Amino acid sequence: MSEYIHTSISNGTGLIVLDRPKALNSLSLEMVRAITRVLRDWRDDDSVAAVLIRSSSEKAFCAGGDIRFFHDVGRSTPQGGSALLEDFFTEEYSLNHLVHFYPKPYIALMDGVVMGGGMGIAQGGVRIVTDKTRMAMPEVNIGLFPDVGGSYFLSRAPGALGYYLGVTGVTINAADALYAGLADHYAPMADRAALDAVLSATPGAELVSALAAYAATHNAGDSQLAADRAAIDRHFSAGSVPAIVASLKADDSAFAAKTLQLLSTRSPLMMSVTHELIKRGAALDVADCLRMERTLVRRNFENGEVIEGVRALVVDKDNAPQWQPATLEEVTTEMVQGMFQPVWPDYAHPLRHLSTPQGHRGV
């Protein structure tokens, strides 16, 4: 087991606690392996009726993958390739698939910061958000794209919300997450003792229904996404990132101005790649979405955009990434489509073993 992952079984519930608070529970390869190992063990353990995953800290459920690791390993090897980097994404995406099709109730308490990889270990289960939830798929901010199944769950958000969340990387709260279909229940941490009582006293076999009943007595409030929905659908249904920007520029609203400013800081190439990713993801099942993302992440590190993004925002902190290309106007269709070109033949793809289990819908 990883020193950052603690597990226990009580009252029929298998508990996984993420405990790397100084890094906001950013996932390392060791942590991914530890979670995978225990989920595989509990899959056939009759003493475990349900699984609950949560954080030891109120600050963050999980802020994503360990991007400093991505930067250090990617920068030190030709074209951003390394066995450790390859293993991380292959095993992380395999874990995401395991969560989506886990045969027992899998419940994620998404308290605090929930971004990137944190979404990947939550979105396939029963998703509980709190008054402290700060959720995002902010990868375009560091020259990456919404992975860990983002092509699947963002493409299934209502209207153009998936394009908006993926292309902007904006952070949302609990009410927004519920509205966008990225959460199931709301449980405020202001009433933490009552929530902990439900979690500890309820037998695992009854935990999902007990949480639903508990959440039904609490209201997450109004959603800003709901208030902005008409504008989001109008602009982000435009068909491409340049068309979205043109639509926003023709709008003199505060929403348009704020969104344009946000887009101006993101990687032009990866915004366009993200738009294409979400478009493609709408027609794919979970396994095929993860395979597509696995190909894309290899291309992304070969390209080097993510290494530059992490350097600028996390390592050097100069907040001045030198994106390539530097402007949206320079991004060509060939550049975007090239990122999706196969890296491996189908029989050698590192996620070739993933499938949709019988009894589950394919899309």
UniProtKB/TrEMBL annotation:
One example GO MF annotation: 3-hydroxyisobutyryl-CoA hydrolase activity
Keyword set, alphabetical order: Hydrolase, Isomerase
Domain Enoyl-CoA hydratase/isomerase: 14-340
SUPFAM superfamilies reported in the protein's UniProt record: ClpP/crotonase
Biological process per Gene Ontology, one example term: L-valine catabolic process
InterPro entries the UniProt entry points to: ClpP/crotonase-like_dom_sf, ECH_dom, HIBYL-CoA-H
Protein name (database record): Enoyl-CoA hydratase/isomerase family protein
